[in-house]
Amino acid sequence: MARTPLVAIGALLVIAGGAAAGYGVTRKATGGLSPQASEAMGSSIAQLDGDVKAARASVKERAATFASLLPVQAAVSTDASTAKDMLVRGELQFSPQAGEVIELGQVTGDKAETLLIQPEGAMHSPHASKAGSYADLMGDKVVITEVAQVTPKEARDGLTGYVMVVRPLDLKPAIDRLVGAGVAGTIEANGEKRTIGSPAPNAAMQTQAIPSLPEMKVIVAVPPKTGGMNMPLAAGGGGLAALGLILLVVGLVAKPAGTAAAAAAAAGTQAPSLGTAATQMSQPGMYATGTPSPVAPSGPIAATDLGPGAMIGRWEIIKRLGSGGMADVYLARAKGEAGFEKTVAVKVMHPHLARMSRAVDHFLDEARLAARIAHPNVVAIQDLGKIGNDYVIVMEYVDGVDLERLLTSARTAQRLVPIDVALGIMCRICDGLNAAHKCLAADGTPLNIVHRDVKSANVLVSKQGGVKVVDFGIAKAAQQGHNTIAGETKGTPSMMAPEQRVGEAVDVRADVYSVAAVAYEILTGHAVNLDLAALAHLGVENWPHLPPPSSLRAQLPAELDGVLLKAMSFERDKRPADCAALEATFEQIMKQYSLTASDKDIARWVQSEVALLSSSQPDAYSQTVAP
Fold it and tell me: Which residue in the list 136, 365, 431, 453 is annotated as catalytic?
């Protein structure tokens, strides 16, 4: 047969067979969740996840605040009648928020007794006396509970106390949104179920966990898919295409002998020998084998997809580090050319907040302000971007743990932080904050940054002994995309300067106050609660109403008593002018008492505490960022 007919027939068979196989393989199945249902489920879970995080953080803070109050510690040593009298006299400041229940009780051995419950007559929780966080499904509500242990003011053998804060979250808006989009199934938690719509009998079920509430799951019925790939058509088309390819090759190979050599001679080149081929350069934008392509800029980040191996732009997720009311934080690695990799922390704003301009302003301000601060004691911001509708901040990853976890673990086990290590950490915190306070804008004008949420949870310590301040999410600056509403209070009340607590304008001395509160905790081993609202009944005199540090730890230099209590003065004019002045005082005391703390000294303490902490909490040794 002549060469040309073979080539023509082969080409036709390849085209026809390829078309048939392609149609058979790519034929789409019908059924499954509709795009509308999938979007409704994703947005409902994201909204619920954010609400749960906010509620959990709030009740945890409320329970911890109550547990630290002296009247509460005194009440758990009494009886129900005395506790009620203390409430009537105003000694116990229990004012439940809407729908909230506060319970106070005492535990002797295995016996728990309720002393007080507010509002009176509220339902008793089964979690009373068992310290921890809980979530229960009750009809259209998920009930968030936090139980904090209370140390009695008057110690008695086997006697402890507890305070419990319970707050319900309404699930009905999320359920109505799902039903309206045609989603059917159940919400389940701890054996309790709430039906959504009318699931079809024997339907395939798809489970979606709520990231911040692993004990609760949304299980939806997925309509079965019909149609889809046509295997006979795909196989037949493939065979036809293969036959055409054979004919095409035979037709191309069977050309007159010497043609290739003659053509090469005419062109003045040598025909390539068998087994050689020209090398083709990779086209711009191509990725090396095994390297996943980044998410397309227009593609939104789905919270359910952010497991190990998922991509956020050019960053590959390794694991989730933590979550807060505004964002989730992930450990990720940056992928680059020639095998380049760098570990980072990626903060992804909750999707439901990305639709709120004020929340977006806060999120962007955090990155813009922190990116201006170049200092070894401040976590560096490496990138800020928007992928689809989602905002992300890429930060330096600190291979360590937040100071709050270490202090809590040490306090529980009655271990004290070495004085030299404690003062060394405080000097580094002061140094980082001072760099933020002195930061300049691009035109050289002062930014006047005030952190406004200095606390041990916002200090990261690494296994190399590094100390870094993090989370400028509510920082106040002269230049930022949003303004705080007059009277608006932001921050952590227990560590907050009085002027900040009542919504007045703040300056760097508000951070000095909070730094001193952290120093009091790390040096004495005692937690503090300086919430003006909680302590208002004690008045301003003798503020901050804390015993001298040396009375709690005799080994402390006596000079620290005046330094810390002055730095926590009610009137800001009595405090040190800035963190640099406070740091200088710490350094002077260290020099006077021959105390030194290198990074290695801090690292040894961190590693010893982490070893003890990890034995009870295996996942504790990882970066924790307050998102």
Answer: 453
